Amino acid sequence: MIKNISNLGDAALYCDFGSEVNKEINSKVIRYFKSIQKENIDGVNNLTPSYNKLIISFDLRKKNFQTIKKLIENLNVTNDDELKTNRIKIPVCCDENFSLDIKRLEERLKISRDKIYEKFFGKEFFCYMTGFIAGMPFLGDLENELQAKRLETPRVKVPKGSVGLTEQFANVYTFESPGGWNIIGNTPKVIFDSTKENNPNLINPGDVVIFEQINKDQYYNINE
Amino acid sequence: MNKNYFEIKRAGINTTFQDQGRGNLYHIGIPFSGAMDNRNFQISNKLVGNEVNFPTIEFAFQGPLLKYFGENINFAITGDVKFIIRKKSNAIEGNCYQSFTLENGDELDIISTNKSVYGYLAVSGEFEVNYQWSSCSVNTKANIGANNGKKIEDGQKIYISNINKNLSDKKLNYINTKIENIRVIQGTNFDYFSDEGKKIIFEKEFVISKLSDRMGMRLEGHKIENIVDTNIKSEGLLKGVIQVPADGNPIIMLSDHGTIGGYPKIGVVISADYDKLVQLTPGSKIKFKKVELADAETLFKLYDLETQNLISQI
User: Fold this and answer.
1) Residue B223: inside a domain
2) Is A194 within 8 Å of B142 when comparing Cβ atoms?
3) Residue B104 near residue B69, CB atoms below 8 Å
């Protein structure tokens, strides 16, 4: 299933599953990721699944590229039906204080904000990966009519909880952070909680996310 | 029970608690963090009789000024650091790689990390810090680790428990050497760059930009031309990865880096050279030298052996 394994530096395996971004390839990446995680291989100190790559980092004092490569090539990979995924509902308020880029999107996409919301809310999105900043989910795929490029000049500070769109993806800023996604609203829900060491992320790779629109009162009533 | 503590009279520029860092969290977006210069971190602990992975205080450029209250305690500083110990009657200029004793009321003034970036302060006891995922290392971006995931600030108190009563002086003869050539393995997107760009990366000198921190080191001086695509589909990053964004100026990922990124990877700094890379100050010149994987593995074995030898001499 892995198309090619190469080294990324001297302490990581770069597993290439293909060049396209789709659910099928990403599901393979996630299956490999979960199977390797279960193996608890001594010396492996990080796994980074993404759209179509999996990076396996190891402690060079304990293992090297060849030894890990052999282990991965001989690995028994989890079957489809063993993957447990969650369906998660994320409330989002699109009040004008939160929907920072809705005007820009209306202009770029040439559709009204109501149409944008109609095409965004209540739809199922698949979580391809989490990261960049702690807990940030990369979700897809948006309909063609919703696909817009990043801001030409990224914001220095995107507020925590912001829900953003770019190309075929949506995400949630789990911390205040620089960023260039088109912000359409904000969620009061805690997406990343570092005090929950066993499961700090609300959304994990493979999960299904459904955004639900809420009003300002509902937003402030969700106290997380 | 008497409390032993440091009062922070001046926090310094970038003073944080660090230990060996936390692994197996890249998939949720949390980098290793941990001491930038792992060798100097471990040596500082050994000089005060600790396990090598105990929490230490890492500082950069200007260090903290700390006033100590409590029973006698040993401390050691590693790196290339100028510091002064002020006692009631006199002041002594301290030496790195040597343990000193602090008495109640003494001040430790860590003035600067001379021609380097990071230094480490270890004490013969345990800093009272909270751990997340078995590490105290502070990640200021996600507010993870000791001190609520924040830098140490002016006026705060840092408590120390379990002080080792058998204070013995320890010393190591060691001088940090500055690295000239950083050795690099070709990256997974090496083919994205023009022939000229491929030459430049291994032949020209770059200058380290002021916009460098625990997350990344930005380089200036020569632009690397991309002939395929200035973006890749976002994928995992590692410390030491050299990315080239659309503007052509390389950025090296350091210990607090974002876990995924979408810029092409032209190379990766080898593990053996990472500790020395992070110590290069803004304005320093840097040149990359290409090596193969097998050489990098051997070089790391040698570097690690040298570190273990240094630790065992203490």
Assistant:
1) yes
2) yes
3) yes
Here the ipTM equals 0.95
- H-type helices in chain B, by residue range? 38-47, 146-149, 195-203, 274-277, 293-313
For B143, name the nearest residue in chain A, comparing CA atoms only. Answer: A194
Q: Is B34 left (phi over 0), alpha (psi -120 to 50) or beta?
A: left
Cα(B155)–Cα(B143) distance, rounded to whole angstroms?
A: 20
Rounding to the nearest 10 degrees, give the CA dihedral for residues B292, B296, B299, B303. Answer: 160
Residue B293 φ/ψ, nearest 5 degrees:
-55, -45
Say if CB B234 and CB A51 are below 8 A apart: yes
**pLDDT value of position A81:** 57
Question: Could you state, in order of their start, the residue ranges of all structural domains in chain A?
Answer: 4-82, 87-221
CA nearest to A49, candidates A206, A162, A221? A206
Q: What's at A124, amino acid-wise?
A: E
The dotted CATH code for A4-82 is 3.30.1360.40
A9 and B144: CB-CB below 8 Å?
A: no
- Low pLDDT (below 50) residues in chain B: none
Domain A87-221 has CATH 2.40.100.10: yes
- Pairing mode, if any, of strands B206-208 and B216-220? antiparallel
**Chain B residue numbers touching A33 (CB-CB < 8 A):** 27
Q: List the domain range (segments joined by +) for residue B83.
A: 4-161
Claim to verify: residue B132 and residue B83 sit in the same structural domain: yes
Same domain, B155 and B289: no
**pTM value?**
0.95
